[in-house]
Fold this sequence. Notes:
By secondary structure, the chain is mainly alpha-helical. The protein has helices spanning 8-33, 37-46, 48-57, 61-82, 87-108, 116-120, 129-148, 150-158, 160-165, 170-192, 197-209, 215-240, 244-277. The protein is built from 13 helices and no strands.
Amino acid sequence: MFDALHYEFMxxxxxxxxxxxxxxxxxxxxxxxxxIVFISGGIAxxxxxxIGLAFFIGFSPxxxxxxxxxxxxxxxxxxxxxxxxxADTVIGALWAMGxxxxxxxxxxxxxYNVDLMSYLFGSILTVPRSDLWLMIPLDVxxxxxxxxxxKDFLAMSYDDEYAGLMGVPVKTLYFVLLALVxxxxxxxxxxxxxxxxxxLLSIPPYIAEQFSRSLQGMMLISTLLNMVFTIIGxxxxxxxxxxxxxxxxxxxxxxFFLSTLLRSLRRKRIPExxxxxx
Length: 278
């Protein structure tokens, strides 16, 4: 693995994975505690429409994904706030239409046969240096916004109705949160792809929740877990010559089931300890 870091593409892959880990750790935590994983999935998959549009018109796919994902995020936020009962149906429709729109535009792109798999399942080993320069300001924006509104996000995450009564702008924060989700999706598109993006946003925060007692601690542990999963996944993919994005997710998924097993064993042990004490 250390020998591989002499190559520029491996250095880019490692930096891209670490930058994606920051976004996933922070925003993934807010996604999990606010229970909007399905909404995040809708935004992620609809962003493929922006990628198709970018290739069709001829500009950066990541910039296209940013614009499209933000537009979809605002539509979903508006609808879910107005009519929560029908929100899941609308999200499903946007999910499907966004991907369909992207595929059609890529098919219609003249003289360019783009590799769909690199955006659907990730291609971290082919991340160019230019993508890193786009990922850095997105990460900085996420850090600045979440830090500035941390107390408000904390209040909204645990009880949005009470937070609203206390003067917290819950609706505005909800729009901001979904916009941050859109930015996070763009950061990790090239790392693991749109199909697998939800796994990296939800698995580490779920594991981190077991070992932290605060939202801030959960974000930190989740970020560190994402970094560990990315590094191990890159090493395994390089060693065995297998797809990097899928390998990263398999590492995260394995740790997810191990942590779930340990949690269940711990819960069984507590009643047995109480019985022995009696």
